[in-house]
Amino acid sequence: MPNVTYICPDGEREEVEVPVGTSIMKAAVSHGIESIVGDCGGSASCATCHVYVESHLEKLPPKTVNEDEMLSDAASEVLPNSRLGCQVVMRDDLASLVVRVAPGQW
Ligand code: FES
């Protein structure tokens, strides 16, 4: 099963196995990574799953207009590698993905 490393705002690193087809937001929440909130449940309408993608960014599908708009409301600074974690769905070729969780989600 592919894995994702989450770098939390306090610097702690959590490596989690994420089933193919599962979003990295859902995997984080189900593993108790509290710095990802996922308030809307994954419908790209809250921006509390903001992450900075540190590897494999070029492999991800481009952001939709809706994701881009939601990120513009994110609590933390939006960078070129910002994504909504609920919109990043695990695939085999994303194994060893590394994401840094945005320092604030509210
Ligand atoms: Fe709400 Fe991602 S969980 S936008």
Could you name the ranges where pLDDT drops below 50 across 5 or more consecutive residues? none
Number of helices: 2
Strand content: 15-25%
Sheet with most strands: strand arrangement: 2-1-5-3-4
Measure the end-to-end span: 31 Å
Main beta-sheet strand count, sense and barrel state: 5 strands, mixed
Helix fraction, binned, reads 10-25%
Using the CA coordinates, give the radius of gyration.
12 Å
Q: On the 0-100 scale, what is the average pLDDT?
A: 97
Count of distinct strands: 5
The global form is globular
Bound molecules: FE2/S2 (inorganic) cluster
Order of H and E elements: EEHEHEE
Q: Which secondary-structure class do the elements indicate? A: alpha+beta
Describe the model.
The chain has 106 residues and is an alpha+beta fold. It has two helices and five strands, in the order E-E-H-E-H-E-E. Strands 2-1-5-3-4 form a five-stranded mixed beta sheet. The protein is globular and about 35 Å long. The protein starts with a strand and ends in a 5-residue tail after the last strand. The mean pLDDT is 97. FE2/S2 (inorganic) cluster binds next to loops.
